[in-house]
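Lab notebook: predicted structure, single chain.

Context: the supervisor wants predicted structures on file for every construct in the current expression panel, including those that have not yet been purified. This is the next one on the list. No modifications to the sequence; it matches the entry in the shared construct table.
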Amino acid sequence: MVGLTGGPEGETLIRRAARIAARTPGSELLALHVVPTDGLTHADPTALAAQRTLVESLGGTYHQTTGESAVGALLQFARAENVTQIVLGASRRGRLSLLLDAGVGHRTILGSGPIDVHVVTHEAAASSALTTRRPRPGHGTGPRRLWSATVGAALFLPVLTLLLAAPAPRLTLSGVLVVYLLAAVGVALAGGLVPALGAALAAALLTDYYFVAPVHSLRVEHGGDILALAGFVIAATVVGGAADAAARRTRQAVHATWEARVLSRLATAMMHGQDLPSLVEQVRESFGLTAVSLLERAPEATPAPRWYVVASAGAHPPEQPYAADVESPVGDTLTLAARGVLATDDQRVLSVCAAQLGMAYLHGKLARHAAETDTFTAAERTRASLIRAADRDLRERLREAEQALARQDTDAAWAAVRRAAQVVTDLADLDRLQGGALDLYLRPVGLDEVLTAVLDDLGPGGRTIQVRLPEQEPDVIADGAQLTRVLTALAADALCHSPAGQPPTLTAEAFDGRLRIRLTSGPDGAPRADSLTLRLSQDLTEAMGGTLEPTYDDGWLLSVTLTLPAASTQA
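Prediction complete. Output recorded below exactly as produced.
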């Protein structure tokens, strides 16, 4: 796994990780970008998009998750995906910053356990001017935050008092009150107004006991000191309340930004046409959940409703709503079930994401139904056109037989009857071919042998076909009998619509391992209509691995081009 920040070092890290993955049999390349929960990131979206493209071009997959701690999100994702090696870039921060706060690479190494961590140097390493540290996200809210701030104040104020009471340097009463005021503001930012008020009262008592005469006593000799202490408590309360309000607004803004980012990413992915499993995986990564499933209830009415997994992501996704830690219903038949810990404030956002997933699923069902309806309609339209073509051909053949019998030409009458029977056979074979019941025997076939059989099948009649072949044409891979049938039918159709003095032409040429056969009608061409012969010829050619393309001009069929794979000399 390679960790990406969206910085200029991303390409170097991706290529290094790809080389490591290539040397490890059976391994996969994963790329992960961690988005802070406050949504305040300095990553370049263009750079991230380019790096994602590079990862996918190297056969890897790109992932994105959110978390207050980049290290925690990296390690949680790595353990969930059974990652054995992590590739990170060397820190771009300066040495002084690293002394004050260890970098992501160092903290990842400390918490990686059995996972190997590779810290790769790059041109942007140790260049503190390249990045600006994002503001740290606000910590938790609720009773835990209040008690943490209270305990922190109870431990910090005595230590601060010992430092202020040191013999030298000795601060004046105003200086001591300013220091305690800063401490009260810090408690307000960390825990709110109630811990800040308690800290202000405690600081006032400590100041009275250690710094107001008489020292080591809670009595106050001078009235001015009483006013100073009272003013300190009031000022600390007011400033602490303002700081608490500002902190709450900041946390609300941070959470709102994160919500907008999550919903925007999901909406963008839906607009780009990502499939439903990818959308579910994005929701799982965004909320840091273990597994997510989109479940649909079976329509049949039973005492215990049956649920089906429409799409899922993560390890061991829930298959029933009651097996999930978090559930967000979408209408009467859909629900989003998830395993993992979800904050109360995030439940509303998850509900919106679930609604979007439900819309994506229903839109997909409607699209598939529309496609199936279009396919069925097209098939019925094709079937109807073929039946009309077969009816037209049969009527024409029977008319020819009646005219021949009127002339007492028995041979011509039998020929017309045979052609009528062939129409019925073609229609039956086309149905068998579309149903997959017509067997083909593909082998190398010589074109000259096929053309000889075609001319024999056409029979005598004083009509000619001009045949132009290369001196050494290759054999083609085809079913000899069916290829003869196709060329015979096409040649007979071309003869019917060509003047006696201008016969149709059949040419062949080899190119790029294939053989192209072109049959051109007379100068006027044949009338364009739904032809059973042409449709059967097309389907038979495609079943043999080739193509058949008719060429039209102003509604007239001028030529038919048949292309088949050529057989090599070794074959």
